[in-house]
Amino acid sequence: MKHMILNTESYFGNGCVSKIGDEAIERHFNRAMIVTDKMLLKFGTLAPIFDSLQKAHVEYVIFDEVQPNPTINVVQNGVNAFHQSDADFLIAVGGGSSIDTAKGISIVVANPKHSDVRSLEFVKQTDHRGVTLFAIPTTAGTASEVTIDYVITDEEKGRKFLCADDNCISRVAFIDAEMMAGMPQKLAAATGMDALTHAIEAYCSKRAWDFTDILAIKAVECIAQNLKHSCQLPKARENMALGQYLAGMAFSNCGLGANHALAHPLSAVHHVPHGLANAILLPKIMEFNAPFVGEKMRAIAKAMGIHGTANMNQEQYIKAAVNAVEALKKSIGITQNLTELGVTEATLPLLVKQAMEDATMVDNPRPMHSGNVESIYRSLM
Ligand SMILES: NC(=O)c1ccc[n+]([C@@H]2O[C@H](COP(=O)([O-])OP(=O)(O)OC[C@H]3O[C@@H](n4cnc5c(N)ncnc54)[C@H](O)[C@@H]3O)[C@@H](O)[C@H]2O)c1
Ligand SMILES: [Fe+2]
User: Fold this and answer.
1) Which ligand minimizes its atom distance to the CA of 260?
2) Residue ranges with CB less than 5 Å from ion ligand 2
3) Looking at the domain covering 9-180, what would its CATH class be?
4) What are phi and psi of 327, to 5 degrees?
5) Ligand 1 centre from 70 Cα, in Å?
6) Domain 185-379 CATH class label
7) Helix 72-85 / helix 96-110 crossing angle, nearest 10 deg
8) Which residues of the chain have pLDDT under 50?
9) Nearest bound ligand to CA 141?
10) For position 7, what pLDDT does the model report?
């Protein structure tokens, strides 16, 4: 049996966040708690959202404690803020960190027995649907607005954990590229490579099937064509917004793989931004998995814009796909190795342990042992 779950309703296109007030009214909501971060407030990114809510006479309070790689503590503070706010729904505005925090708040408010947050890691589905969530991404990367996933950092244990729960999915998403226009090049590069990693991992996942394949390979093509110019060209930015959403629809329904399993510890232990960690690992993980995904590497090479893939032998198309990803990375300024990001011989055993325990590892097409994980990290130091 196959199963697909997507968020209920999504708007696309420049300026579509102006619909948020109407959507709240149509759904009979009175007061929102907006989950975001201080930087976005400072940049004025939320102005069109405030404007739309005010026009529709929908009240709002703001919870702005989100930080990159959100922690258990931030989710718990958000739950307390929600209880004090008298709000009846949530609006997440930001990158994956803001949307994931809002998902955690939404789930804990509806399922108070998980107020420790940590216990949500292995729950396949909580008892109750979360508080209604509207999601507005401001990065073209995580696609958290359409996924059943959220990632929280356990500071006490020094690790990140993934929760996958149908009950956290957003009700309305607004994929508005204008909300992403403020991204500096470095952020657009890292988050865009996160989206590419989602697309490639979903396409190669053990649980991939025809439906997710169509979404994932289109996402690879869209991201490969548009990432490089997404900070300069409005059309490329719009296409990136769509590409990352397509990738999200795919991976949310068929899983990720070793790339994310090895990336999460780099963020938890060394605070490497999520997209950057994925980008550094991606060519090596593709090489490792290639013998187990067959013709799919040919399709990836073609979607990455390589010509003549139909006449290539296996060795050639694998090389072409890996080189195309490496070239894209370089063209957007991602050239760091893991040593430059703080990885040392001393932290390596912890990284390997956490990667092997990460929930995303199970969908990797090729079994990966701790020796493989260690040599992949080492090859990037
Ligand atoms: N839920 C999922 O399915 C999923 C998937 C992948 C990753 N994640 C998680 O999402 C998090 C990463 O999210 P992210 O990569 O979107 O970054 P982020 O949300 O952590 O934001 C990074 C920084 O970018 C800033 N920023 C965001 N939008 C901006 C804009 N338009 N202009 C200027 N600055 C802006 C933020 O203020 C923040 O300082 C990680 O915790 C990761 O594990 C979740
Ligand atoms: Fe990711």
Assistant:
1) 2
2) 194
3) alpha beta
4) -65, -40
5) 10
6) mainly alpha
7) 60
8) none
9) 1
10) 86
